[in-house]
UniProtKB/TrEMBL annotation:
Database matches in Pfam families: DUF4283, zf-CCHC_4
Record domain DUF4283: where: 22-104
Top-level taxon of the source organism: Eukaryota
Protein name (database record): DUF4283 domain-containing protein
Domain Zinc knuckle CX2CX4HX4C, residue spans: 166-209
Length: 237
């Protein structure tokens, strides 16, 4: 597109014309639902408000296609919601990020989902917060790690909260090894996971989304899915 001289002019906006909205945006989160299907937006808003206990204290504004701005009254509520997830509606995960200056509908990037991961099967001498952090850092960005108290009676697994890239399949497990080099396989179980494709292991998709890409049978035999509900953790600590 070739601009005219008038179109090339930069219109400077005064701070006075922005101050109210800037203050409002400072206490806001931007989010979208990780889903491949339509959903009831009004029901989603009402469900989130009730789950957060903020029926009259948060404003939810649609600012793009499946893109919402959540405006809070206090920084305490904003941090509580941002750090307290994962949040979902109808098994569809809500991806959230904090507002930053210059954000608009076409430059918001929501590429990670923060989930608590349980790490099972590690040798007894490797069950520690440091090991959980090291393992979690290979899956994504570590957000938080559970610090167990020494006097706890149960210590079956480690827990770490990780910001996972939603474009990659969930990892079902991995090998860990100490300085001696002996490997041990550990399995990952995900707490409160959203919709998951049992064929590709991608968050936010179900089998219907990929129906045109594969057949349930191959050479007359049923295809065995590599992912399933067994990735879901049955409980936290």
């Amino acid at each position: 597109m070739r601009l005219t001289a008038e179109e090339e002019e930069t219109i400077t906006i005064s701070d006075e014309g922005r101050c109210v909205e800037i203050e409002s945006c400072k206490l806001s989160l931007i989010g979208r639902f990780l889903t491949c299907k339509p959903f009831n937006k009004r029901a989603a808003k009402n469900t989130l408000k009730k789950a957060w206990g903020l029926e009259n204290e948060v404003q939810i504004v649609e600012v793009g296609a499946n893109l919402f701005q959540f405006k809070f009254n206090t920084e305490f509520d904003l941090e509580r919601i941002f750090n307290g997830g994962p949040w979902s509606f109808d098994n569809q995960l809500l991806l959230l990020t904090k507002w930053r200056k210059g954000m608009k509908a076409d430059n918001v990037r929501l590429n990670h989902a923060s989930l608590w991961i349980q790490i099972w099967g590690a040798p007894f001498d490797m069950i520690s917060t440091q090991v959980a952090t090291e393992v979690g850092s290979r899956l994504g960005e570590v957000v938080e790690v559970e610090r167990r108290r020494k006097h706890e009676e149960s210590n079956h697994f480690m827990r770490v909260k990780v910001a996972l890239p939603v474009s990659k399949p969930l990892r079902r497990g991995g090998f860990i090894a100490g300085s001696e080099g002996e490997q041990s396989w550990v399995t990952f179980r995900y707490e409160r996971p959203p919709m998951l494709c049992h064929f590709y292991g991608i968050l936010g998709h179900d089998l219907h989304h990929y129906a045109s890409h594969f057949s349930a049978t191959k050479n007359g035999r049923v295809v065995e899915y590599q992912y399933g509900d067994w990735l879901k953790a049955t409980g936290g600590s």
